[in-house]
Amino acid sequence: MEKDALSRLSRPCAAFADGRILAAGPLVEVALAVKNADAADGYVLTFDDATGEVVDLDLRGAKPEIIARLAAAPPGRERSDSAPTEGAEEAARGRGRPKLGVVAREVTLLPRHWDWLAAQPGGASATLRRLVETARREGGAESHKREAREAAYRFLSAIAGNLPGYEEALRALFAGDAARFESIMADWPKDVRAYALRLAEAGGA
Predict the structure, then answer these.
(1) What is the pTM of this model?
(2) Were 113 and a residue from 88, 109, 156, 200 both cysteine, which residue would form a disulfide, CB within 3.0 to 4.6 Å?
(3) Which residues are CB-neighbours of 199 under 8 A, at least 6 positions away?
(4) Residue among 121, 114, 178, 144 at smallest CA distance from 51
(5) pLDDT tens-place string over residues 112-122
């Protein structure tokens, strides 16, 4: 099985039924657990640990069919529409130029921006790469916090909208007030509370 397929099958997820965790672990194991769940477990929602998004599971058919669908790339995700084709990349590189993993895409700037880039050492492309790398280093921690909070928000939006203090919990989450966030959820189902705290932990709430 190809590496990307194994990665899709192994991504960490958690399935919830009526406020409790039905299964947690690699996607393939969680999906099969949901497939075999008792009807008495009620409505089941499966979440991606990395993003907090609901994972749509097609559980029709036998185990091999389910695994094959899970391993397949999501529709439209194989190649971005904005990414150049292999032939286009070859043409952009030019005959005889080495392939360095660089992808050519359109960048739209004002004339003064192009003038400034052209005056920088190494030219426009090298300068843009340096600027991007600097922004990634300096904004990485803050970006990670934001992504963690958004993951917790997606999870809570899907599962906790009717729980007491829901809106107050979201305000505490985005304010980075960890103590208040946990306090508001004190009377919530323990699995919901624990999972929300785990998703938000990297976000400082």
Answers:
(1) 0.67
(2) 109
(3) 49, 52, 148, 151, 152, 155
(4) 144
(5) 888 888 888 88
pLDDT in tens, 50-101: 999 999 999 999 999 999 999 985 643 433 333 444 444 444 444 444 445 6
33 within 8 A of 23, measured Cβ to Cβ: yes
* Residue among 127, 174, 172, 177 nearest 146 (CA): 174
Count, residues in the chain: 205
Question: Which tokens hold the place of 149?
Answer: 């909070």
